[in-house]
Amino acid sequence: MQTFTKDLAHHVGETITIKGWLYNKRSSGPIIFLELRDGSGWVQAVAVKDKVSAEIWKNVEAVTQESSVIVTGLVSNHPKKENIFEIQLTDFAVIQLAHDYPIAKKDHGPDFLMENRHLWLRSKNQWAILRMRDAIITAINEYLHSEQFIKVDAPIFTPNACEGTSTLFAVPYFDLGSAYLSQSGQLYIEAAIASVGRCYDFGPVFRAEKSKTKRHLTEFWMMDAEAAFVEHDQNLAIQEGLVRHIVRHCLAHCQEELTILERDVEKLKKADAPFTRYTYDQAIEKLHELGSDIKHGEDLGNDDEGLLTKDSLVPVFIEKWPKEIKPFYMKLDITDPRRALNDDLIATDGGGELIGGSQREENVDILVERIKKEGLNQADYEWYLDLRRYGAVPHSGFGIGLERAVRWITGVEHIRECIPFPRTIGRLKP
Amino acid sequence: MQTFTKDLAHHVGETITIKGWLYNKRSSGPIIFLELRDGSGWVQAVAVKDKVSAEIWKNVEAVTQESSVIVTGLVSNHPKKENIFEIQLTDFAVIQLAHDYPIAKKDHGPDFLMENRHLWLRSKNQWAILRMRDAIITAINEYLHSEQFIKVDAPIFTPNACEGTSTLFAVPYFDLGSAYLSQSGQLYIEAAIASVGRCYDFGPVFRAEKSKTKRHLTEFWMMDAEAAFVEHDQNLAIQEGLVRHIVRHCLAHCQEELTILERDVEKLKKADAPFTRYTYDQAIEKLHELGSDIKHGEDLGNDDEGLLTKDSLVPVFIEKWPKEIKPFYMKLDITDPRRALNDDLIATDGGGELIGGSQREENVDILVERIKKEGLNQADYEWYLDLRRYGAVPHSGFGIGLERAVRWITGVEHIRECIPFPRTIGRLKP
Fold first, then answer.
1. pLDDT digit string (tens) for B27-62?
2. Residue A38: its chain B contacts at CB < 8 A?
3. Of A137, A291, B246, B268, which has the fewest CB atoms closer than 10 Å, so is most exposed?
4. Helix (H) or strand (E) run with residue B22 in it
């Protein structure tokens, strides 16, 4: 019978068995302290020479880092720390003795760690990130269902190189030429809302960008949500609700992980308040005040995003961007048709852009005109135009990059740690 | 303010507004019955000529199938049917009038429907399938979390053509040669269990098979689960628990959808009982009794699966297959090393294979030997062998094909209806 370390609070005074791995060991004469991990958490087992058989003591002395072990003992409260438990070891078995585990306590370079990603995942920080990534996924699924969205998976193989081929991965596809790997499911879930009202996809997307930054991956996970009869303001309200639910869920369920990662929890708590909302014009004005040389009409770079949010306790919406730098499917603001009814949401603490969203153009004639103006091939979009020919409705949606969200909530610097097996321009292994 | 049709039970006697689409219309002199859908469900609105303005009546008369509409009216109980509600129409607006919606009531061929998949999704059956697919996804996430599994996403881009290239899609990947699109995340989540104990991936996988059957797609969704310290019998128990949770969840939450799809709910209810368990040897013996000419040592075909389960009320495990027809990573049965500690789970009602699982070989020497025997390149598996060098533990896992599960639970015949935008050897659009 296996007990999980995360459940030890319910077993104080009982003898239980933990199955896991040795993370660390230190000894103090006739006492050896074993730091164990079992996937659900971490616990210290205390072996006292006088209290165990000679054979058990020999095995405890011999056990090495990352060996797999079965530890039986009495659960007790930690002598000094509240809500921390210890195991007074009474039985001990090594399943497999590990020799020369390659990841030592000393610092390794990122290339070495990435080459050994299959082992690096076991380190305390990586464990905490994996668990928080799962918590964020759960929070997203929960919130969207509570708002009547259902999951409708968009395809990965797409037929047209809709927005230019330079950042698309192409795959030979039987006798049909090339398939392109999806960069967003948006157009597909726009079709699905006319069936189910509100829906989202949540899966991997692919970008053949030759960027080498702390914020780029070639394969990453994206959640796209889309809702019929939702207009710009309500779209922002849904996005804000989602982000605040993620923050609350993680604060409620990931205390241990946040502590391991040394995330400033007070900052996260403060982010759970009404978000700031700037128009693009206001944002540019504020950036100029802050010393940026950004020109009106330009996209915001990382530096601008950082500057604009550096003193903000809450994420910042930037809405209503110039239509020239936004895609054809965004609806324009009826009160100022030079502006799109869109938004970017910028995280606090240097987290950068979390979300991009917009209300979509639902008028078929305007959409055809914009497709032509952008030099796109109308034939590729006939099915998408059908959605406006048969029962067009006002609708809006947005996309959130999962790894961006994980990076912000965990406070981890590099996005390659925010996905279990990162793929970048120079990395396809393990 | 928008009310969803699924919530009408809470609004009887109130005047509410539904936003959606016209699905069907019939008239009886001065009364017009509008069948509406809003994504959350279906409702009939009744317009009576004497009780509305001339303009409203004109609009109701003119509205066409799949036009988008806003309907306001009083919610009442259906005169004859319990738990069905009607709306006595008081106000009506057409958002966009649809002309000549291509999918008529008459039968269309599958090619036409697939070409118009973006519109076909709106039909009642397709709506029900989309919603049940979402319910099944939710049930899987719920059950696995309740059993301490967390979601750890495996990569789609993989470096080696591990199991031969014939059914793999290859993608040119920067300067690193080809990447291959994943067919299973199993090996990766085997690495992750040494960090988190129990985990699963759930995402698209790709198979460049030239099969054209009712059960094959080139892109489909797979859930792979893996657990440390779980051996063969417990692996089967987890699989059975998962499938029974899916069945119960759908019975509890998808009554309307099951009714639309004319699924025999009594049969599903009966499947929620302890599953049958045959060894491969017993299964072959039974198949011979039933008249099959399958030879001992062969894989079961669709016909054999159907024959074996045709009188079974519950899904059937077939365990302990000949090692020769199973992959190198499966652990062999210590009591009979000609057999693998694996299982296939066959659904009832012709649903076919739902799950494949096994205990994994954790001994590095045995694994190396089997890799060599199968003519695989050991260098490609060094990282996978590391998992046995550093803290090997007994462990097991399984994979469930999402569309297979949707097909079984919904009772739909063709798997192409079980995914929103199917991709097959001949189809890459829309």
1. 999 999 999 999 999 999 999 999 999 999 999 999
2. 197
3. A291
4. strand B15-28
Q: What is the largest CA-CA distance in chain A?
A: 86
Tokens 């990435």 — which residue? A114
Q: Name, in order, each residue with C-beta under 8 angstroms of B383's C-beta and a sequence gap of 6 or more.
A: A116, A118, A429, A430, B191
pLDDT tens digits for B103-160?
Answer: 986 788 999 999 999 999 999 999 999 999 999 999 999 999 999 999 999 999 999 7
Report the amino acid identity of residue A24. N
Residue A326 confidence (pLDDT) above 90: yes
Alpha-carbon radius of gyration of chain B: 26
* Tokens of residue A73, six digits: 């003992």
Report DSSP state, residue B413: S
Question: What strands, in cross-sheet order, belong to the sheet with B157-158?
Answer: B157-158, B178-181, B170-172
Q: Does B141 touch chain A (CB under 8 A)?
A: yes
Based on its alpha-carbon atoms, the radius of gyration of chain A, rounded to whole angstroms, reads: 26
Q: In chain A, which among 45-84 make CB contacts under 8 A with chain B?
A: 66-68
User: Contact A80/A61 with Cβ under 8 angstroms?
Assistant: no
The domains located in chain A, with CATH, are: 5-96 (2.40.50.140), 117-418 (3.30.930.10)
CA proximity to B48, closest of B20, B78, B88, B76? B88
pTM (two decimals): 0.98
A33–B contact, CB cutoff 8 A: no
Q: Which two tokens stand for residue A3?
A: 């007990």
Q: What sign does the CA torsion over A286, A289, A292, A295 have?
A: positive
The least confident of A161-165, A261-265, B321-325, B330-334 is: A161-165
Alpha helices, DSSP H only, in B44-159?
54-62, 110-115, 117-120, 124-146
Judge residue A76's burial from the number of C-beta atoms within 10 Å of its C-beta, 0-12 exposed, 13-18 middle, 19 or more buried: middle
* B112 in reach of chain A (CB within 8 A): no
Which of B247, B343, B377, B419 is CA-nearest to residue A152?
B419
d(CA B201, CA A256): 23
